Amino acid sequence: MVKEDIKPKETSLLKTLGSLQFGIVLLIVVACVSIVGTILPQGKPPAFYQENFSGPVSTLIQMFRFDVTYRSPLFVGLLCLFGLNLILCSIVKFPSILKRAFSPDKTPGESRISKMPVNATVKNTSIDSIAEHFTSAGFRLNSIDSKNYFGEKGRLGYLGAFTVHVSLLLLLAGSVVSLVTGVRGYVLIYEGETASVANITETETMPLGFSVTLNNFDVTFYEDFPGRPKDYLSMVTVTLPDGSSYDKDVRVNHPIMLNNFTLFQSSYGQEEAASQMHSTAENDTALVAIRLKGAPESMPSIVELSMALGDSYIVPGMGDSISVRLSELHRSFKQGATMGGTMNPAIKVEILVYDSSRWSIFAFKNFPGMNMPMHDDLPLAFEMKDILMTIDDIDSHEGHNHAAQQRYYSVLGVVRDKGIPFMWAGSIFMTIGLVLAFYLRPRRLWAVEIDGNVIIGGTAKGSSEAHKEYVKKTIADFRKKQ
Amino acid sequence: MNHTLDVSFFNIAFICYFVATLVYVMTFWKKGGAAAVIGKAVLIAGFLIQVAGLVIRSMNAHFMPVTNMYESMNFFAAAIVLFYLILEYRTKNRSFGAFILPIAFLLMVFTSLPTTPKDIKPLIPALQSQWLVWHVIMAFIGEAGFAVAFGASIMYLIRKRVSDDSFIGQSFPSLTALDTISYRAVQIGFPIFTLGALIFGAIWAKYAWGDYWTWDPKETWALITWIVYALYLHARIMYGWKGSTAAWISIIGFLTTLFTLFGVNYLLAGLHSYA
Question: Which of A45, A173, A296, B174 pairs with A370 at a CA distance of 20 to 30 A?
């Protein structure tokens, strides 16, 4: 009893999930949620939404994760349901689509033929001569016997809509694979150097499975348009694990695609800035002026110290209790993902009270008045006057801010995406499907001979007007010939 | 370098479209006569001059002129006018002109605004791609189909509200014909738009930025546009939604198209900031 109760329910649930109505509702909801994602600023911290939206709205945003709309469980769930809908409706319809395309009823009989959207009767003729005429007019003969004729055109058009739906499934599958296996990172290579791992986060790397040597990097600008870049070009040699190698020019729009990785030209810089970012600058010293906070500018600083990384200095005039220590020294401080550009030397100073760290603040050479963060209770202000860089590979210490040589580095964005084959397959299926569905107009003709007269019936996918005209014209031609 | 010739051509095309639109709007009920001949002649002249402008510009820029708003709107307007001319030729009915040509004219108004930069700038590296050319050209051809469907849908809704004896009833095609034309226009536009705007756009994005799809507002709105027309087609085939309902969906579809083109650029920010 129980079993019998459940079964029809399951069937009807599957039916609903695979129905066109459900698909349409899903698409409308997907569209609405997508709109929310384009209007609402994405990826902001919760405080942002609390500040800018009223209580209930901000709660809704948090609840449905509209702060990351396109990665929210709601949206991903909707897409999964849409995929399920496509699978179910494709499975349900596939046999009938195949049957419709490849095994139509070849002898439907007189009563059905005469009820078809296109029909005509040609008197005093035979099935053979009609068949011959339609064939010479462009219809493909499918089957014929002494009494029945069946011809058709554009049969693959019946598979168009199905192919488009399969392509959507492939694209959806590809995006799921990308979402699950996708990794984004970068490789930074100096000219003449080789990289074989991608940096995913600050500490995490991922082997590429091949290595890339940057032979040369070049950036060119348009002559008549100063500052308008024409080309970013990384000339690289790609070496595969088996030792074989080939040269490749990586430029914007011309990435390396290998091992599910896409390496695309993303950014570049020159060694000066590069070494500042990555060198530990262990032997550098910073010239730091320490002032009393809030003191007028005319008042001289308490002291100017040439500080080395890690060393502590007693601040004069404050008793022995307060000392400062240089805890970080950046040749070019960077924040976020921006790279290259002008140098931004910065220091981080710790203020120790009785040898225990109490405050730590940043000061920037290019922004003299700025100390970050601004501690209200800190009595001192710091100014980074200069950086004294040591350049290991060069003997002379000529200027402070001059780089040893202008060697370029190139940053290649790295995306690992195992969804690529799905995406290509989906794109190809989509193209084929759209052409079949919209540009092939399947047409069919049946004819049956009864008492010396031939009754013709025809169908066409979509509008049958053109088919009707065609059949009329072909019959008229036939009569003329007779 | 003389880059002003193409701009002059576009300006002349603009004037032609203005005159043609005016003539078509003011005389749409006339089946023939001097107005019909003049209107059509000026329209065709404007179209040919615009195409010549596009050719000159592509020779100057050494690239298909579809890389900024000015160029692509000129292309879009030309595509709409071409679709219209084909439609008029096939239906032998010029009342469509009063509803489709104003779209092309308004696009030209937009291109002529002083705030729209008209100079040829060489391509930044991200735009140097054949996928870009196919992406933009096919997206606009598809959208020109949507523009025709929009015009026919508006006519349908107007025709429905007037009697057969009125001059509108006399000059417009039948309701069935309007509905069919709108449907055909979507059928022509939809596959081209799908391939151009979505598929080729995604492939280009993969080559340029490493990702097919980043949910940038322009991509998202193109997808929303696609969903609207997908609904139009499905509702029609499966439920037989024709007539007014279909007309309204087609109107919403074209408004979404316009928002994707303009609204996103001016109201929302994203990777497509140059287009």
Answer: A45
3 state DSSP class of B136: helix
A434 touches chain B (CB under 8 A): yes
Residue A332, C-beta contacts closer than 8 angstroms, at least 6 positions apart:
A273, A276, A277, A343, A344, A345
Cα–Cα distances in angstroms (integers) from residue B135 to residues A171, A345, B54, B127, B203, in the given order: 18, 44, 17, 11, 9
By C-alpha distance, which of A211, A184, A177, A396 is closest to B210?
A184
pTM: 0.77
Cα separation values, A317 from A121, A299, A348, Å: 116, 15, 22
* Mean pLDDT, rounded, for A108-125: 84
pLDDT tens digits, A245-269? 999 999 888 898 888 888 988 877 7
- Residues in CB range of A448: below 8 A, 6 or more apart: A107, A109, A110, A113, A127, A147, A148, A149, A454, A455
Chain B residue at shortest CA distance from A418:
B211
> Both tokens of residue A93?
């319809």
Judge: A253–B126 Cβ closer than 8 Å, yes or no: yes
pLDDT of residue A317: 66
Contacts across the A-B interface (CB distance below 8 Å) = 105
Rounded to the nearest angstrom, the minimum Cα separation between B198 and chain A is 10
User: Rounded to 10 degrees, what is the CA torsion of B100, B106, B107, B112?
Assistant: 150
- Grouping H, G, I as helix, E, B as strand and the rest as coil, residue A66 is helix
Indicate yes or no: CB of B125 within 8 angstroms of CB of A230.
yes
How distant is the Cα of A322 from the closest Cα of chain B, in angstroms?
50
DSSP state of B113: S
**Using the beta-carbon criterion (under 8 Å), do B268 and A252 form an inter-chain contact?**
no
How close is the nearest chain A Cα to the Cα of B104, in Å? 26
Q: Which of A69, A224, A427 sits opposite B199 (nearest CB)?
A: A427
User: What is the residue-averaged pLDDT of chain B?
Assistant: 90
Q: Name the phi and psi angles at A285, rounded to 5.
A: -130, 155
Q: Say if CB A421 and CB A186 are below 8 A apart.
A: no
ipTM above 0.95, yes or no: no
Are A131 and A458 in contact by the 8 Å Cβ rule? The answer is no
Decide if B164 contacts B197 (C-beta within 8 A).
no
How far apart (Å, rounded) are the C-alpha atoms in residues A256 and B237? Answer: 44
User: Minimal Cα distance from A254: which residue of B?
Assistant: B207
Is A435 in Cβ contact with B227 (below 8 Å)? no
Rounded to whole angstroms, how far apart are CA atoms B194 and A167?
A: 12
